[in-house]
Design a protein that fits this description.
This protein is mainly alpha-helical and 297 residues long. It has two domains: 209 residues, Hypothetical protein af1432; 80 residues, no CATH class. It is built from 18 helices and no strands. Helix 4 packs antiparallel against helix 5. It starts with a helix and ends with a helix. The relative contact order is 0.14.
């Protein structure tokens, strides 16, 4: 598929329920103001570090979270950073932007309603676990996108949030079906009840948030990344592998994960070996717990 074909699939070949649900919960489906402005600045070639800092400064809670993260072992800096403008200078715009968006996403999920059979907090913990694994995988693969991979891991299951908010009774039905039929995949249950999957919901939501196309790819293809052209499948493939590794830890809600094995073709695309995966799997539980302290409070 070309970029145009992928975009067409996201915007046109989408079940009507997806657009309907996103329209119904516009108050949730709108990215918080600071994150939205940062996303716009990301696409503005003339944006300066001062523009970024001014935007972040409008939300004190996000400023505090950024400073907490950059001064933690997450980045391993030797000197304490006291201001967000210094964080931008040292870490770069992308790193600071991703931390701010992560804080915004957590804020959205904290205000989201849940259904009796489902704890949305467990979904966030799983997302943090996938984000942590994706960041480690990107580093191990020598790819220059660890911060991008972290954000991709956080948003990969964001479509579930739409389902929970817009169709709570239907979502409860999905969880009941999965409880009674352990062999059924999450996407199969979604198709049976809603006629759409969280991948469709997530991809359309990322488009509405004006996220870069690689995040649309992650939301829409993280279960089957090899459906994408090789030039576009790397980030979704990283998240796919991280999704599997996160499920092995038993942390958070991982019923969405469809396999416990990693396809060799995907490892080849990422340039990773089995021993690379084993090394990351070994360190992942401790790394996830550390990241939880930063992003789950």
């Amino acid at each position: 598929m070309t970029q145009t074909e992928i975009l067409t699939a996201v915007e046109r070949d989408v079940p009507p329920i997806v657009e309907t649900c996103i329209q119904e919960i516009r108050h949730i489906a709108t990215l918080p103001a600071v994150a939205h402005k940062l996303t716009c600045l990301m696409n503005d070639g003339n944006a300066t570090a001062n523009d970024i800092n001014k935007t972040i400064a409008t939300d004190p809670a996000i400023c505090v979270r950024i400073l907490k993260v950059v001064n933690s072992s997450f980045y391993g800096l030797t000197k304490q950073i006291a201001t967000t403008d210094r964080a931008v200078q040292l870490l770069g715009f992308n790193a600071v932007k991703n931390i701010a968006i992560a804080a915004s996403l957590h804020k959205i999920l904290r205000t989201a309603n849940t259904v009796p059979s489902f704890n949305i907090g467990d979904l966030w913990i799983h997302s943090v676990a996938v984000a942590t694994g994706a960041r480690a995988l990107a580093g191990k693969a020598g790819l220059a996108l660890p911060d991008e991979a972290f954000l991709a891991g956080l948003i990969h299951d964001i479509g579930i949030m739409i389902e929970v908010q817009a169709r709570p009774q239907k979502f409860a039905e999905i969880t009941e079906i999965l409880f009674c039929a352990p062999g059924l995949t999450f996407r199969q249950a979604e198709e049976r009840v809603l006629g759409a999957t969280h991948e469709s919901f997530g991809a359309v939501l990322c488009r509405k948030w004006n996220f870069p196309m690689q995040f649309v790819h992650v939301a829409g293809f993280h279960h089957e990344p090899m459906q994408l052209p090789e030039s576009d499948c790397v980030l979704p493939a990283i998240v796919h592998v991280a999704d599997i590794l996160a499920s092995h830890t038993g942390l958070g809600y991982s019923r969405t994960v469809e396999t416990d094995t990693i396809d060799q073709q995907i490892l080849n695309v990422l340039g990773l070996r089995e021993d690379d995966i084993e090394a990351i799997a070994e360190m992942l539980p401790d790394a996830i717990r550390e990241t939880e302290q930063l992003f789950c409070i």
